[in-house]
Amino acid sequence: MSTRLQGAAAPVIRPPHPRDTARPRYGTPRLRAYLAEAAFDRPTLVIDLKAVEQAYRALASALPTSALHYAVKANPHPAILARLAALGCRFDAASRGEIALCRAAGAPASAISFGNTIKRAGDIAYAHAQGIDLFAVDAAEEIDKIAAHAPGAGVYVRLLVETSEAAWPLSRKFGAAPETVLPLLARARSAGLRPVGLSFHVGSQAERASMWLPALDTAAAVWTEAHAAGFPLTLLNIGGGFPADYGNPVDPTPAYGAALSAALAARFGPDVAVMAEPGRGLVADAGIIAAEVLLVARKRDTDLARWVYLDIGKFSGLAETIDEAIRYRIETEADDRPLPGTGTGIG
């Protein structure tokens, strides 16, 4: 799947089709105008860079005491990274390749966190040589790798969050059980590293700020235990989970940020340094995938259901739709038009 980006030039918007007033339409006016005029010979993701910038500014304003680190894996296109770097955004990188992209986009090493908890030893050494000084861990073996290849670095322990209302929970695979955190902090300190904080991830697409509360309660309890045990943690990484609009109700960004900021202040006070790692929340609503319907067919004449075949599939751009974890909104040129002989639309 290819990618096209729309920069500062404002295209001319064509008069709306009569059906445009019959139902909500997706994407920014700039995106819609571009898609109306452009031709595509393959599935193409079109991104409005101005919309990315607006999403970043809105979230930064809603979370004024949090340092935003864009999760590069959400979309690593160099133009997106360059635009965000110019705005002062920081970055959460999950690989050596993502680190290189961030550096090429103008991000200083001090603005990059190596947030993957499972890293190649060579990639840790590469990051350390680049000047990156902040690494995520969730296992003793990872601490040992970082101590060997990034001596003296700062580390934060990722907590396992098992209760999540997010559309795509990220439990079990990543994170340390709460009862193992203090031993991990002690191991990091004895290995010559600097245990600076905790992190967690509520899961992708947390549509309401209230979905963060159980994870914040867990983190606050471990935070208190760590301080009592002699670990003066200063950094809390609340991860990602900031939602995009897929048709379900989503808290508006100002209200979302205000509620989350209040919850953080109530549990951690004013002195904690907060990181956040938005990915989907910055780029998903800024883009539309243009794809072609290749065939619409029924397997049997008696079938009610029809198969709609696209030139893009689950494994070439729509991986998030597996098991309907994320339900993309779909729009076609035939929306709201009657089907032959039925009088009903296909939208």
Structure description:
- This protein is α/β, with parallel strands linked by helices.
- The chain is 31% helix and 17% strand.
- It has 10 helices and 13 strands.
- The protein has helices at 29-37, 49-62, 78-86, 96-104, 121-130, 140-149, 181-190, 213-228, 253-268, 280-283; strands spanning 2-6, 44-48, 66-71, 90-93, 112-114, 134-137, 154-158, 194-199, 235-237, 273-276, 287-290, 293-297, 307-310.
- The protein has an 8-stranded parallel sheet with strand order 5-4-3-10-9-8-7-6. A 3-stranded mixed sheet has the order 1-2-11. A two-stranded antiparallel ribbon has the order 12-13.
- Helix 6 (140-149) links the parallel strand 6 and strand 7 (154-158).
- Helix 8 (213-228) packs parallel to helix 9 (253-268).
- The radius of gyration is 22 Å and the shape is globular.
- The protein starts with a strand and ends in a 37-residue tail after the last strand.
- The model is unreliable at 8-23 and 341-347 (pLDDT under 50).
Question: What characteristics describe this protein?
Answer:
three-stranded mixed β-sheet, 347 residues, alpha/beta, globular, eight-stranded parallel β-sheet
